[in-house]
Design brief:
The complex is a heterodimer of chains A (about 250) and B (about 150). With about 250 residues, chain A is mainly alpha-helical. Chain A is about 70% helix and about 10% strand. A 3-stranded antiparallel sheet of chain A has the order 1-2-3, with helices on one face. The N and C termini of chain A lie far apart (about 65 Å). Chain A folds into 2 domains: about 1-105, no CATH class; about 115-245, no CATH class. Chain B has about 150 residues and is an all-alpha fold. Chain B has one domain. In chain B, helix 1 (about 1-20) crosses helix 3 and helix 2 (about 25-70) packs antiparallel against helix 3. The chains are: A mainly alpha (about 250), B mainly alpha (about 150). At the A-B interface, helix 3, helix 5, helix 8, helix 9 and helix 10 of A face helix 1, helix 3, helix 4 and helix 5 of B.
């Protein structure tokens, strides 16, 4: 029984640390709890912690609290835990298989590496193009964006708050573009814009909207606040460099 | 125009990679983003930027919900990369610039415009996803899905 409780809790924790919406966390935990043989499952999930109460058939109630401190967006893990819980409740896979898979997902590190930074740089370049930049401007935005991602992902593995990560990234992006502006002629604004877009809090923003929609007010409001704080941090970072550069 | 359409697709595709969308779904989420951006470019002339954003947000959400059902994936897999091209980064940047240059009047105008653009995308997502949710709940109650 204890192991079952731990397993259900682990599924919820994994979803939360990967940035899933609250209703998905709650639905998955409920589905897994019922499939594991509990008569009643109560869950209260917030972005920073989760409470779970499982009622067993012998009348005992198991309650667990898990604090979530570190969030690292990974949509693939959300998709995998979702699929696991579905096939488990449909009786297609055994409990041991679920445990093995969940533990593998828990240990799994977010894939990073040079390739990933270069792809992120391509994203920065395409933003510059979307805002009517030239190919050369896109190239500079791409290079700066890739370097920013490299530094931010280094910071992610250290106890640096997200807001500070975003501000640091923005300072570095604007700094590099300012340096490049001394050497070449180009539209400064559209290049900086592209380079800082890699820091945009896309996951938090979208899940905030969806949380609000499903009536998860606590997490909807707190995620909106997080997205806003990150956006302001990016703007501040760029503004610092711009005012130092005397623009 | 062609370059901008392609850039919208590529931006959604690359952000899908950054957010670790499952490999077999990356191209689909890129297409969602590309189509959303195309909708915005096509409609902003007639309905203004805010109207265009609303239409694009709705289109992205509808596509994401449909694809999620077809491929048995969480909706966010397609929705998050899909809204990336619609993030009003340009307006937000200009807002910051105006405040920095002590042009508060212009800054406030741009700030309101940024908030409205972001709100229009959110409204589009809320509208589309609510309709889908009502539909799923109805099937849920009838016992067709569990």
């Amino acid at each position: 029984m204890e192991q079952l409780v731990g397993l259900v809790l682990l599924a919820g924790e994994l979803l939360l640390t990967c940035g899933a919406e609250m209703y998905r966390v709650e639905e998955t935990v409920e589905r897994m709890g019922i499939a594991a043989g509990f008569t009643q499952v109560e869950i209260f999930a917030t972005p920073t912690g989760v409470f779970i109460s499982l009622h067993a058939t012998d009348g005992r109630v198991y309650t667990r609290v898990r604090r979530i401190r570190h969030v690292q967006n990974n949509l693939a893990t959300i998709s995998e835990v979702n699929a696991l819980s579905r096939s488990f409740s449909a009786g297609q896979i055994s409990l041991d298989q679920v445990r093995e898979e969940l533990e593998r997902l828990q240990k799994q590190e977010n894939p990073g590496g040079l390739w990933s930074y270069l792809i992120g740089g391509l994203g920065a370049a395409s933003f510059t193009l979307m805002y009517a930049g030239t190919w050369f401007e896109a190239l500079i935005a791409g290079i700066s964006g890739a370097i920013v991602l490299m530094i931010v992902s280094w910071l992610e593995h250290r106890p640096v708050p997200k807001v500070l990560q975003a501000a640091t990234g923005a300072v570095i992006a604007a700094g590099m573009v300012t340096a490049a502006a001394d050497l070449f002629q180009f539209n400064f604004d559209v290049v900086t814009l592209g380079a800082v877009m890699v820091l945009a809090p896309g996951v938090v923003m979208t899940t905030a909207i969806r949380d609000m929609l499903s009536g998860e007010l606590v997490s909807g409001v707190s995620r909106s606040a997080e997205a806003l704080a990150i956006a302001v941090a990016i703007a501040t970072g760029v503004a610092v460099i711009l005012s130092l550069g005397g623009r | 125009m062609g370059v901008q359409l392609l850039a919208g697709f590529v931006s959604a595709l690359t952000f899908a990679h950054l957010f670790h969308v499952p490999k077999d779904q990356i191209v689909r989420s890129g297409v969602v983003g590309g189509l959303g951006w195309a909708m915005f470019l096509l409609t902003k002339g007639d309905w203004g930027e805010i109207g265009g954003m609303f239409v694009a947000g709705t289109a992205v959400a509808v596509l994401s919900e449909l694809l999620a059902r077809k491929w048995k994936q969480p909706v966010v897999i397609f929705l998050i990369p899909g809204v990336i091209p619609l993030v009003p980064g340009g307006k937000a940047y200009l807002t910051m610039l105006s405040f920095l240059q002590n042009d508060y009047l212009e800054g406030l105008e741009l700030l309101v415009s940024t908030v409205f653009l972001a709100g229009a995308v959110a409204a589009g997502i809320i509208l589309a996803s609510s309709v889908f949710r009502v539909y799923s709940r109805a099937r849920h109650v009838k016992g067709e899905v569990r």
